[in-house]
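Human: I would love a firmer grasp of how sequence relates to backbone shape in proteins. Could you go through the record with me and say what the backbone is doing? Here is the record:
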Amino acid sequence: MGRTLKILGIADLHGRSKQLLQLKNVEDPDVEDVDLVCVCGDLHNLGSREEAMPAVEALSSLGYRVVIVPGNMDPRLIVPKLWKDAGFVMLHGSSFIFDDFGMIGYGGIVPMSKRYDDSTKYYHRDEDVYQALAEIYKDINNMRRRIVITHQPPRGVLDTIYSGEITGCMSLRRFVEEYQPDLLICGHIHEARGMMQIGRTKVVNVGELRRGFCAIIEIDSDIKVRWVEL
């Protein structure tokens, strides 16, 4: 029997650093004793390095180890070095081991229109997601618990926008169905905060931190989610 892992899952801050400062000051024992902060993308809202710095500084000030994937609003030409300098673990096509918990991640989105050639943003083709995650899954295959962190949800799960259209990633859905990780944490679709299952995999859309929504995810023999509103 291994240890319990407690994650603070956040996404979609869109540069509103004051929400992170509010999170820092919240009197909540669950928030105070988390092991990791997992950021599911869109920490920023495009813009320059100078415009991105307040959110990075506010996130660093929480004092936790940060694991992060980029979102479609995180500037591709800026964030890799910025986050590395801040000490964040960037999981984009890579893996991270924390005790006996294995994590892999892939950020960005498959855009609804064909804008794959925009080098300033984390846009990619649908099949790229499956291929990248399948390749790095071997790094965590033997871990006690296997966690995937993405920005975009899987197709048909917590991915319905206000118009009723489903907008998730098809090859991410295929990956989850085939590999069945224990947990997938995502964001991106602000309207779809919640938890659902794909087979044995719990999928958690942590909600839009810009509006004060996030989640505490506790992983041991079971996976429990507690929703937080600032």
Summary: The chain is about 25% helix and 25% strand. The longest strand covers residues 213-219.
